[in-house]
Amino acid sequence: MDRATRKELKSDKFALEVQHGVQYVTGHQQMLIRYGGIAAAVIVVIFGLVFYFRHQSAVRQQALQNAMRVESAGIGPAQGDFALTYPTQADKDKAVDKAWLDLAAKYPGTNEGAIAEYFLGSHAADKGNLQEAEKRFKLAADTGSAPYASLAKLSLAQVYAAENRVNDAKALLQSLIDHPTITVSKEAATIAMAHVIASSDPQGARKLLEPLRGSERSQVSTAALTAISSLSK
Questions:
Q1: How much is the pTM?
Q2: Which residues contact 83 (CB under 8 A, 6 or more apart)?
Q3: Domain ranges (residues) in the chain
Q4: pLDDT, tens digit, for every residue of 16-44?
């Protein structure tokens, strides 16, 4: 397998993990909350990127990994000397918010700061605070490098769609289709676009999805077929 093919497959894996984790919903805040857990779905992607971009500052990386450890901590009795847990969900939520707020404040304008803003936006969206989610995702999109910014744009488009700001969502997604990254491939952004326009333009959504159903990459074809199936319901 040549280097280009390996890179393409790696990109598809990241993109489709994110795509499944941040499924698009339209015109309905409760649906956004129902499809919550954005941060949990994307955490594996962020971990992968941390190792992928090893040239970043070791100090900032360590701070990010510390925040990630809080993010992925368990609830309940301690499971060992090295496993981080909190007595209740409320205790964990408080610690998670502090970890990301501290990281965002300490490293603004860096990728680590952008990741912190992304997770703050994700948690705000999960709680139904769409204004805060929009603010945080915009900061992540404006300050992170392309892989992180594209994740933030994908989630920001989700917020716009939930607020019935379909044109704003479409504009963001079109920019992702035109400029794919390792985390958001052209195919993933296209599938997301189809989700956004599905209720207002189901024929247009199907037109976007049909070329992808026969993709040689199984993750792309499966995601497209699932989206097409949802159009029929």
A1: 0.77
A2: 73, 74
A3: 3-231
A4: 434 433 433 323 334 443 434 444 445 55
Maximum Cα interatomic distance, the chain, rounded to a whole number of Å: 55
pLDDT tens digits along 166-191: 999 999 999 999 999 988 889 989 99
3-231: which CATH architecture?
Alpha Horseshoe (1.25)
User: 125-141 burial string, b = 16+ CB within 10 Å, else e?
Assistant: bbeeebebbbbbbbbbb
H/E/C letters for each residue in the chain?
A: CCHHHHHHHHHHHHHHHHHHHCCCCCCCHHHHHHCCCHHHHHHHHHHHHHHHCCCCCHHHHHHHHHHHHHHCCEECCCCCCCCCEECCHHHHHHHHHHHHHHHHHHCCCCHHHHHHHHHHHHHHHHCCCHHHHHHHHHHHHHHCCHHHHHHHHHHHHHHHHHCCCHHHHHHHHHHHHHCCCCCCCHHHHHHHHHHHHCCCCHHHHHHHHHHHCCCCCHHHHHHHHHHHHHHCC
pLDDT score of 112 more than 80: yes
